[in-house]
Write a structure and sequence with these properties.
There is one protein chain. With about 210 residues, the chain is of the alpha/beta class. The protein has helices at about 15-20, 30, 35-45, 50-65, 70-85, 95-110, 150-155, 170-180, 200-205; strands at about 85-90, 115-120, 160-165, 185-190. A four-stranded parallel β-sheet has the order 2-1-3-4, sandwiched between helices. Helix 3 crosses helix 4 (about 50-65) and helix 4 (about 50-65) crosses helix 5.
């Protein structure tokens, strides 16, 4: 694959894939990385009776019906209800357990069955996985590790239909998704500096240092 055809949609200003009324740039992913047979296959997948198809259509319906009207919390509840999920798993950070409790109350109020597991489940010390003392937050004493794989296993054993992440650390969320048997959505992306609003660093000129030399 040449450098010219590498997928690089962030370099585009036309977005002809959305409008379909403009010329596609030479490096366009739509024209360089897809073919009619694959697109036809995906049309069948999204239009079919599989879980993938139902999820795709449900997400699109919620977007169309409630565009800029519902919060992400409300959209998550609607998605669970319209998909007919019977049991929802909540995997949360201990630091956001109050937010997780509030979300659990919302699920209960809407008649949705749920189970929940916090990141420190298992109670193992970070030293057990080889973390050095200088890499701990609280040096000189015990410090319990986050255990996202165990969180996923606990919810797998509970046979959840859908799992919701609330504030897992960067990387720990990835591990949870790798090991979850049920589909996963992120309700809260943790940002300890910006009040759990990672996009603030993208909006603010103060963070230009992150991409300027």
């Amino acid at each position: 694959m040449s450098e010219r055809t590498l997928p690089r949609c962030t370099d585009c200003g036309l977005f002809s894939c959305r409008d379909r009324e403009k010329d596609y740039p030479g490096f366009c992913t739509t024209t360089n990385q897809t073919d009619p047979a694959e697109l036809e296959e995906l049309d069948c997948l999204y239009g079919g009776d599989t879980l993938d198809g139902k999820m795709a259509r449900t997400a699109a319906q919620i977007e169309g019906r409630y565009y800029c009207q519902k919060t992400r919390v409300e959209e998550t509840v609607l998605f669970i209800q319209q998909m007919g999920f019977q049991k929802v798993g909540i995997a949360c950070c201990l630091g956001l357990v109050e937010e997780a409790r509030t979300f659990a109350k919302i699920l209960k109020h809407n008649g949705i069955d749920f189970v929940s597991v916090v990141c420190k489940v298992g109670g193992q010390d970070k030293s057990e996985m080889g973390i050095a003392e200088e890499d701990k937050i609280c040096r000189g004493g015990p410090e319990t590790m986050c255990n996202p794989i165990l969180q996923a296993r606990v919810l797998n054993r509970a046979h959840t239909d859908f799992n919701v992440l609330i504030g897992l650390c960067v990387g720990h969320d990835s591990l949870f998704m790798r090991h979850s048997e049920a589909p996963v959505t992120v309700l809260v992306a943790k940002d300890r500096v910006l009040g759990n609003n990672p996009c603030a660093a993208l909006y603010s000129g103060y963070y230009k240092r992150l991409y300027q030399d």
